[in-house]
Amino acid sequence: MLSYVFNFSLIEEGQGNLFFGGGGQAPTTMAEIEFPVETSMVSDGTLLAPAAGGCGLFDSPVDGRHSTMANANFVDGHAKVVKLRLVNPTGEGAITCPTLDGKTQRMYRITDVGPYQGRDELWGIPSQNNGAWVLR
């Protein structure tokens, strides 16, 4: 039921946004995004329910449902496959979190080189500081 997640950093301060109604700042415009090719917009994933072990309400990890890959769309309009790896893929160490629709989500890390590498979410607006990726 919950199979796609958005990069809420693009709209979290928006007027009339999905969660908080009116007020706040205007949503991020495309002109304000320094790296639209690298900035995710929507991807395969799910929203988490709060639980022990670092699973927070509305965390939105990627889901490697396509042979440890996720489909993602980016702000400039292109789509691509994002490569992932399972976190602790074998044995008792596998990391899972409950989802808002009552299922269990195995946790993945993004392996593609770029601003989201090593993270479990395609969340944040990339910029660079001395050549290093920074997410806001």
Explain what the structure shows.
The protein has 136 residues and is mostly beta strands. It has one domain. Helices cover 0% and strands 29% of the residues. The protein contains no helices and 9 strands. Strands 1-2-3-4-7 form a 5-stranded antiparallel sheet, with no helix packed on it. It has a two-stranded antiparallel sheet with strand order 5-6. A hairpin with a 2-residue loop joins strand 8 and strand 9. The mean pLDDT is 86.
Task: Describe the protein's topology.
Layout: E1 4-6, E2 40-44, E3 69-74, E4 79-86, E5 96-98, E6 104-106, E7 108-110, E8 126-129, E9 132-135
Antiparallel strand pairs: 1-2, 2-3, 3-4, 4-7, 5-6, 8-9
The percent range for strand residues is 25-35%
Mean of pLDDT: 86
Q: What is the strand arrangement across the widest sheet?
A: 1-2-3-4-7
Number of helices: 0
**Percent in helix:** under 10%
Number of domains as seen in the coordinates? 1
Q: How is the biggest beta sheet arranged? A: 5 strands, antiparallel
Low-confidence spans: pLDDT under 50, at least 5 residues? none
Helix-strand pattern: EEEEEEEEE
By secondary-structure content and strand pairing, the structural class works out as mainly beta
Q: Give the radius of gyration.
A: 15 Å
Distance between the termini: 29 Å
- Please count the beta strands (DSSP E, at least 2 residues each): 9
**Could you say which overall geometry the principal axes of the C-alpha atoms support?**
globular
